[in-house]
Design a protein that fits this description.
Length: about 500
């Protein structure tokens, strides 16, 4: 039996691994943003996510080799229990650090609250069985990455830029600001300020999860996390589990130290493997060294909050009904005319059955053109990526989105093939276009068109401008056979508000 001192050392090792895992997650985030050497590993954490892998393969009815590393996480769980949650999960680490003094209220919460996460897991799996991944917006890695991409990093960049604008006019601080710019800009901070739609609800969801920690430490992990529920069910048959020995004097120190509330005191002190995150806090806190890790061959018995047969049937029915409702709504049948998917996406339904809602593609888009949808694709497509050219265009020299998509929902096209993909077609609004409507010279759209054979051609005509004077202008025309709908013309159009040239889906 190891002493509490030894377990304290191992607990520090765990905490160090937590910090390293979170640091790696953040590093890969910036490596993806700036195309650093680690770019091929930008989606590493999603590849290790068993929930994402299982649901994507269920929905797509296919084996996805890129998500095969999730078997490593399952293997570790079968041996050691929920080590992913206690040692590696970046979201779990943040929630562990976000502590509130009022978290003691957890004592008033019934353990049956854990039924919620198990039922959410069943709903996600049932919906995936019917080809729907909408509820993967609740995957913890997707939650964190989406928030970092659309809220935290843009907010951080805006705040730093605003402070620099205030400090730069001060002569004594000018060199320091220039040094910060030379070190951070382009390496960590983007050159252009990212702007994302839906950042307010995304931030509200993330803030709400953090606020729930006021009710209980790691409230999300205890009661709501579907990935934790999946790993918890696997942990019930884990080989190595923490066990309370006969030397226990019921002092309660382990209970006070256990943040996931994984120690059942109702029938004697018993550690619940499905709830234990192997954080080692209870082993370090035990003064009698009566808690240890032992090999157990029998699976953990069924608990009152474990999924029942009735809940499985209800989840299957709810998943089937939910998919029918989502796919027979008006939004589902009438696609938004400007619902422009990333390059290489040809079949909308196939895309929805494979997209993990992970926001990896939005993270690497250099122009922030890829945005999370709201209702453009119906509720089934909530927070899936689509191109909004007025906010950012599809860079002709970039194919990053397909390279980092974990599930292959966006095909990993090489640059030559990506440049051939037709996203949509540009249409000129002659009532808003400066040369057409006002006789004002403007050739921005033609100049910006990246196609080797310009998809926008100019016709020189003599017109009468708004002041009644004769003027020679060049009116743009779109050659639809050459246009790929990259959207740079709409993005660069100088007309205020809605652009005079807009891209519509093909």
């Amino acid at each position: 039996m190891r002493s509490a001192m030894t377990w304290s050392r191992w607990r520090r090792v765990r905490q160090a691994i937590q910090v390293l895992a979170l640091a790696l997650y953040v590093y890969l985030l910036f490596a993806a943003l700036q195309r650093r050497a680690a770019f091929p590993l930008a989606d590493l954490f999603f590849r290790l996510d068993p929930l994402a892998a299982l649901t994507a393969m269920l929905a797509g009815r296919a084996w996805i080799p890129r998500l095969a590393p999730a078997l490593v996480t399952l293997g570790l769980t079968l041996i050691f229990g929920r080590v992913w949650c206690g040692w590696l999960c970046p979201f779990g680490t943040l929630l562990e650090w976000a502590r509130f003094r009022s978290a003691g209220r957890a004592a008033t919460l019934s353990p049956r609250w854990r039924t919620v996460k198990n039922f959410v897991l069943l709903l996600i799996l049932a919906a995936a069985l019917f080809g729907n991944l909408s509820l993967l917006i609740l995957d913890p890695l997707a939650l964190l990455t989406r928030t970092m991409t659309t809220v935290i990093l843009p907010g951080l960049n805006y705040a730093i830029t605003a402070v620099e604008h205030v400090l730069y006019p001060i002569p004594l601080l000018r060199s320091a600001v220039e040094w910060v710019e030379s070190v951070l800009r382009g390496l960590i901070l983007p050159v252009v300020q990212p702007v994302f739609a839906q950042n307010a609800p995304i931030a509200a969801l993330f803030a709400g999860i953090l606020a729930l920690n006021a009710l209980a430490d790691r409230f999300w992990c205890r009661y709501l996390c579907p990935l934790g529920a999946l790993l918890g069910l696997v942990s019930k048959v884990a080989l190595l589990r923490p066990v309370v020995g006969a030397a226990c004097n019921r002092c309660g120190r382990c209970v006070g130290a256990c943040r996931p509330d994984a120690i059942d005191t109702g029938r004697g002190y018993e550690i619940l493997p499905a709830e234990c995150t192997v954080c080692l806090d209870c082993l370090a806190a035990c003064p009698e060294a009566s808690i240890g890790l032992r090999f157990r061959r029998r699976p953990d018995p069924i608990r009152e909050y474990d999924p029942t047969r009735r809940q499985v049937l209800v989840a299957l029915a709810a998943g089937a009904v939910g998919v029918v409702v989502l796919r027979t709504g008006v939004r589902a049948k009438q696609r938004h005319p400007q619902l422009i998917r990333p390059p290489g996406v040809e079949d909308e339904q196939d895309f929805l059955t494979r997209c993990l809602r992970c926001s990896q593609c939005m993270k690497v888009c250099p122009t922030s053109g890829l945005q999370p949808t709201l209702f453009e694709a119906g509720l089934e497509g909530l927070w899936t990526p689509h191109l909004v050219p007025r906010l950012g265009y599809c860079d002709y020299g970039c194919n990053a989105c397909g390279q980092v998509c974990p599930s292959g929902a966006i095909p990993p096209l090489n640059l030559a093939r990506k440049r051939e993909q037709v996203l949509g077609v540009a249409v000129i609004d002659r009532d808003r276009c400066l040369p057409w409507a006002h006789g004002v010279p403007c050739i921005v759209c033609e100049e910006m068109c990246p196609m080797p054979r310009k998809a926008i051609r100019l016709e020189e005509v003599t017109v009468t401008d708004d002041r009644g004077a004769q003027a020679v202008v060049q009116r743009p025309h779109v050659l639809q056979d050459l246009c790929i709908g990259c959207g740079i013309c709409e993005y660069r159009c100088p007309v205020e508000g809605e652009a005079a040239i807009r891209v519509f889906r093909g």
